[in-house]
Amino acid sequence: MSNGTSLSYEINDVKTGINHAKGMNYHVHDIRAEMKKLEEEGEIKIGHIIGPYKEEEVMYGIKKKVPLDMHYQHKSCGQCANLPGVPRSNFYYRDKLGIKYYNDMQQTSCTAWNYHASGLGNLVQLASVAARNWHRAYEEGYNFTIHCVTSFGNYLEMRHLLVGNKELRDSVKKVLASLGRELVIPEEIVHDSEIAYALRDKILEAADPKRIEGINGLRAVEHYGCHFFKQVSDDIIGGKRPIVVGGLASHLGVKMEEYSKWFMCCGFGFRHILVNREFTRSAQNIKLKAIKQEVDPDMILVNCTGCGTTFDKTQWIQKAVGEDYHYPVVFYSQLAALALGAHPFKEAGLNFHVTPVEPLLDKMGIAYN
Amino acid sequence: MSEENKNPITDAIESTKGGHFYKEIMKDFRIKESLHGCLNCGTCVANCPAAAFYDYSPREVCQMIIEGDEETIEEYMKGKIWNCAQCYSCKYRCPKENSAADIVMAMREIAVREGLAAEALAGYTRIAKLVLTRGNQLAPDMLSPDAFPDWGPRMIELSSKKMEMREELFEGFPGMNVVDRAWAAEDYTIYEMQKIWEESGALEKVGTVFPFLVDIVQDDMDDKKDEMEARIQEKKAKLEASKK
Fold this sequence. Notes:
The complex is a heterodimer of chains A (369) and B (244).
Chain A: H1 10-21, H2 31-40, E1 45-47, E2 53-57, E3 63-67, E4 71-74, H3 77-82, H4 85-97, E5 101-102, H5 112-118, H6 123-140, E6 143-146, H7 149-164, H8 166-177, E7 184-186, E8 190-191, H9 192-198, H10 200-206, H11 209-215, E9 219-223, H12 226-229, H13 244-251, E10 255-256, H14 272-275, H15 277-294, E11 299-302, H16 305-313, E12 329-331, H17 332-339, H18 358-364
Parallel strand pairs in A: 1-7, 4-5, 4-6, 6-8, 9-10, 9-11, 11-12
Antiparallel strand pairs in A: 2-3
Helix pairs in contact in A: 4-17, 6-7, 6-8, 9-13
Chain B: H1 8-16, H2 20-26, H3 30-34, H4 43-47, H5 49-53, H6 58-67, H7 70-77, H8 89-93, H9 100-113, H10 125-134, H11 153-169, H12 187-199, H13 202-206, H14 211-243
Helix pairs in contact in B: 6-9, 10-14, 12-14
């Protein structure tokens, strides 16, 4: 970010600025310009942003429009099945801020977890599933917004491939036509954590002062899903060094701390979490060790389904190698929901987490029984 | 990415190299975007979690494609590609913006298509079945403590109470309190998903690993075909009308 004064997370602003400046500009392109060209040629339709939006800066100074209302909720299957407090918190903060949203039972999973884990499926299938979900938001008149980082990375990639490859585009159009649908690419692919970040002033304004008092001064580290910022890096708020989770949290009073292994994959690995968990546990061991030795925070803040699962579920087993970790794993939206007054269990679903959250709630002065 | 964009490096490689797997890999259009020459600098390896724990190297992935080294490619096709965590750390860090993760993804697709993935996908049946019959990839029911004993004792407690906990959490949110899928995707939606897999050729590919699954999906589709196709016809008519 070139304009650090408008953001609350100055350290990362500086880092992002350095990354922008040095050597990575191998092929700067703005996908929006390419999409506009294709729209003018009649090749695609664009699902334009509906209602108010806020511009946030992504790589190369390009502005991303973050829709502030009319949110189609592209849910995460991993969250709904495993960490259901996250989608519930996503609904909760919207209800509190008066944001209209649509929880669609005609949505499918993006199938990217399956694809990256197994190689089952192909690009036409993956892009058609993406385009069918995009079309659902378009036909219902909502802005497409995404809860899951795997879906987010996948949809960024599918947009990139569909815009850049006519053969793929034609194949997908054919599949969509067989369903009575058409190719409508959203003007912006936006992750829910980017929206919460863009809404940080409103969240703070509407927050319960007692809750903010409890949050103030908590120490946290952040971890971002690899598919949030490594798969397609050039269209994320903050660019190569994401800022949205730490930016929101520090705005609410959390003291964000750096640790040396912030970049490293959590060990989820798509297939590894199912069939090779010794890899997952080993990667976690490196991450958790660095977090403990360098920070020893009150919580680990995340925005990714897979990473949230991995951090939450893999701390207990570290006892096998003589380590004792118990860092509560909290999603950005659960933190926002707590700030806005949510019941930690009945409305933020923190009781679904395996690593106990009770010590954190005690420290925040939040009752949970 | 421009459609006219040629990649002189991959074009030159393609014109000189032999090998069956190599030729199949080079057919994937993503390779042109994933390989821009390799400095052998090892930055990708230093950032790769799979390289830290397995005999796997993203540098080697790029080099073997540049070299057209069929022996090494075969070694990867038959096992090593499944070590990659698909985290894209290699792509993020590479000074040439190569993406070993994307090359591996293209190779995984080929491995499945050519019947080399049976061992790697053993234990994957439930996910594949859920995707193709429920429209979701994950369900609360799948996270049973006996399948994940290393997730600790609290998993057992959660598992036994999940129905009542979900009921409380999702009161007033229809379709969210289900345990055999992530959310209650409608039958019509599942049919659309199945049709995408069929029309795109992906279902046929599933048959190389899980042939019984193809039968299940096709039976499921046949059972509801008349009703669902009638709905699709209505949608097509509506779409046509909107274009006029």
